[in-house]
Amino acid sequence: MQPIILSPPFSSASGQSIQLPLSKSIYNRLLIIEALGRRQDALLPLSAKALEDKGSYYPNDILVLSRAVVALVSSPSTEETILVDVEDCGSALRFVVAYAALATKRCVVISGTERLMQRPMDELLVALNRLGGEVAWEKGEDKRDRIVVRPSSLKSGKIDLTESRSSQFISALLLISPYLPDGLEVEWDASSVSKTYVYMTLSLMRRYGIECSYTDKEIKVLPGRYLPVSTRDIEADWSSALYWFAFIALSSLGAHLKLQDLTLPSLQGDASAAALFRLIGVKAERDEVSGSTTIVRVPCVEDFHTAFDGLNMHIMPDAAPTMAVVLALRGIPYRMVGLETLPLKESNRLVAVKEGLRLFGLDVELTASSILFRGGEPTLPQETLHLNSHNDHRIAMSFAVASAMGYEIAVDDPSVVNKSYPLFWRELQQVLNPEEKSE
What we know:
Helices cover 32% and strands 18% of the residues. The chain has 439 residues and is α/β, with parallel strands linked by helices. Helix 5 packs parallel to helix 6, helix 6 runs parallel beside helix 7 and helix 10 (320-329) runs parallel beside helix 12 (393-400).
């Protein structure tokens, strides 16, 4: 695909209304809840609604899991093996493996991109097998890794995930746990994973009729059956909203935008980043009548610098690249910690951030779980900056917002944003060049 070139803005953001995607974290959890809670031969309205869209609005991660759920639920009974391709979607991989281990009566073969199949999975497979599952890595005819789930009868038990590397392992097990004979007990350490995603899972389970209790050390889920889901419970995506917070943070005083349907308070952990942006001069005000949230560039909070020395992004890792880029472009020193999972994402996001900032004449120091920026001013815009997105949607969008400062940026593969925010380029071009109509 041809690179997209973002031209400098003719003027500052002046109140344009921005359409945000739905939260794929919430939607994908509800897809599993819907599939498990359906009555015999019932339709799957959430999956159908997403697939009817053909990808122009719904993030690709939602489409991938929707197709997978439909395949698992609707494949003809004559097929001995169900093939599921989850592409590059981490949550789909984890959720589908757990769902298949519980619900399938046939062999399910799950494949994905090479990068995805290199990401951590063994903890989930071990946990499912301890519950009586038959889940294993196998090589396909093409010599590529895939996960094979064979029919089994899962039992209840207590699973130790205190050293888990991903909250998605915990969420995947929790989502299927009401359908185990006596529910499930999970030992976990809330300080070792992005706990807000686990809390999101538990909140949605409770909302749809499941009894569960939890502390930061233990979770107990009782057996039950999910109630029918409602599309009203799906919030706009806060991770996507933060790119616009970043755009305003890099704009002049008074610049403002309206974000449609952004919810506060929110189930999403990334909503916590709004408080960080307020420190550096981005104020958010929600209009309860219209449902929109206006973000405006205002003066910074006094003595805000101290908040960024040891800034822990553990509960909102998806917001970390955006925050790292914005603070550096603003010349604000920071030491960001809690980034253990960033090297394991679609790209090594620590390395990708460092490489991208070099385009602006800035440098950061990395460890396995932190970024240190000692300060400095970015070089003035002179020529087109060619950004390597590393096939990572969050890297592409985190750096694209630098166009607010007058930089002309060429992003190597604009299609990467389809994973979470298909309309991002349309919305950004609308803000940069308001006189031009989007096609």
